[in-house]
Amino acid sequence: MSKRSNNAARGYTIVELMVVMLIFSVVMTLISVSFSRMVRGSAQLIKSAETDIGGLIGLEVMRRDIELGGLGLFWNIPSDAKGSTSYFSYTEAPDHLKFVYNCLDGCPQAKPSLFNDSTYDDDRYIPRAYRVGNNVAYNGSDYLVLKATALGTNKVSRAWGYLNYTTTVVIPPRDAESQPFQDKDRVIALKSGMAGGRGVRELVFKQPGEAGFSVSYVKPFPADFSPKDPGDNFLVYGVDKPEKDDTLPLRFPFNRADYYISRPDEMSPNCASGTGVLYKAVITHGNPDPPHLPRETVPILDCVADMQVVLPVDTNGDGEIDYHLDLEELDALKTRDQLKEIRVYILAQQGRRDDSYSYPVADSERAVIVGDRDLMENPDDAYGSIWSSSKMAATFGRNWRNYRWRLYTIVVQPKNL
């Protein structure tokens, strides 16, 4: 009995305790490392999911706006008694308005006023539904301008209807989504028909040869903007809600949305250095004089590196795309006749930096392609931008490959030209 008691009372030796503690420490270290990796992995997945959700929502807004381009735009201006249209003018973006910031060169060609439709002699002040500034914005990205009545920031811009000689009120469409007009909504009227074998969408003025095109909606519709002949058919489009001063007219007869990349002073810490934010800016009908800034700006997508816009056209009318544009080469008429698609390519970061990940690069001179697939094989015959590994490193930092880069593609066939 005494021998067993002595052995039981002896306990563990220091060597045995050290071995146990060593094993325990190794096990806990392995658990801690595994847990840390799981946490980092889950955080990366969560951030990637947030990026995907935010990107889908924001880019769907952009896709819808592109599809609406051209809706409610006028194609013709009536001449005055002397056969001239010089009485008519308007200004969309005032000269002091600026959207793109923190460019190395200041991005002078991304000035919103440069995309006003007022400088072409052959179709003076006839708006073009789509305009593109090629490589003029942040990081050499494109600047996209959309024009349509439906691009406003309120329900009024989504209201439209018919007006003919026998009615005194605007008749809403039956088979299309449209908001009802409210008293004092600011609207425009277009005379619709055919002339010389071509469609006509003529902007209606209060008096022939006078510049008043803005109408305050009431029932019955104002006689000055109503059909005068039995064969006349008018389309009425909502543009903007009334200002505090109910008599204040529209500054221009449609709405305009600009899409561009800019880098704000405060960026998300999860974004790679050198990336920016994709914004949508709606130019409003408020006071255009300094220091007022007539615009409403909404962020669409964070951590954006580049945006390229390509406009495939059919120049010979055979129904097949035969030429791609990304420059200001089409006037309003050619845009309606020839433009077949609008393609937008957006390069953005997905999730946060992951040091365990390396972005795959097959060709260091063509590490990232933002644009047509043909850029890889025929860079001289396709449109977009090619990012080499060295350019990516110089723009977004040496660790640019530790980010997951995703190319978003939007392809829209215009339906409202």
TrEMBL record:
Keywords from the named record: Membrane, Transmembrane, Transmembrane helix
Task: Give the residue spans that cross the bilayer.
Answer: 12-35
Q: Name one Pfam family in it.
A: N_methyl
Q: What is this protein called?
A: Type IV fimbrial biogenesis protein PilW
Q: What is the lineage of its organism?
A: Bacteria, Pseudomonadati, Thermodesulfobacteriota, Desulfuromonadia, Geobacterales
